[in-house]
Recover the amino acids of this structure.
């Protein structure tokens, strides 16, 4: 059971480039989330999904898009990266319908993104 | 809107001292969850505890204990007989009952000196 995994672990982009971060979970969780962590600010929710094929905006969605085509995967896209998007990105998942409602979010190891 | 405040940005103590991390939250919801997560220097987020708004019982897990008081909207975390391995950033977080979106505090960086 790998839990929540994120790909890649590190990435450096130039301003204007695009990229996709991949999050995968093998816990059969219904809900998935993308957060960003900036120094001194804790984690802030970017987008989330409460099921396959559904997505919703969080607190800081601008400049990001997401897709949840498969239950186990949640993709975060940056269409035109900006230096303000330099951050550590965390994916999380929660709530297994089969095992009963679990309300704890389990996090992936994070992706450190630098935009030059 | 929901908000979590961790007023202590950094705390430094000597090993074996007891230390309390404060967490104050704001929400208009009557049902919600409160969490503590630990982020060691390696960077991952480790779940420590979840408490729902109906359960005000304090909890103890080894050297860790949590004090939840709805009257003061606080969910404080105490480490007894601290150890160097407890050095980390600790986050308090609040979620709604529905989509369970987490709102995090700014975090408290705890340093335990030998």
């Amino acid at each position: 059971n790998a839990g929540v995994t994120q790909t890649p672990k590190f990435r450096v982009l130039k301003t204007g480039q695009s990229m996709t971060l991949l999050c995968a979970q093998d816990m059969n969780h219904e809900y998935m989330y993308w957060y960003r962590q900036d120094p001194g600010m804790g984690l802030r929710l970017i987008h989330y999904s409460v099921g396959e094929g559904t997505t919703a905006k969080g607190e800081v969605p601008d400049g990001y898009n997401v897709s949840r085509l498969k239950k186990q995967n949640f993709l975060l896209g940056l269409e035109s990266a900006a230096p303000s998007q330099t951050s550590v990105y965390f994916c999380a998942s929660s709530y297994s319908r089969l095992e009963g409602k679990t309300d704890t979010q389990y996090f992936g190891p994070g992706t450190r993104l630098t935009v030059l | 809107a929901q908000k979590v405040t961790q007023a202590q940005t950094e705390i430094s103590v000597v090993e074996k001292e007891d230390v309390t991390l404060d967490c104050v939250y704001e929400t208009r919801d009557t049902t919600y969850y409160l969490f503590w997560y630990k982020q060691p220097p390696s960077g991952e987020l480790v779940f420590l505890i979840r408490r729902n708004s109906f359960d005000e019982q304090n909890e103890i897990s080894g050297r860790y204990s949590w004090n939840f008081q709805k009257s003061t909207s606080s969910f404080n975390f105490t480490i007894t007989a601290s150890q160097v391995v407890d050095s980390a950033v600790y986050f308090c977080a609040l979620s709604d009952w529905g989509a369970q979106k987490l709102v995090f505090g700014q975090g408290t960086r705890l340093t335990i000196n030998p």
Chain A touches chain B through 26 residues (CB under 8 Å). The mean pLDDT of chain A is 92.
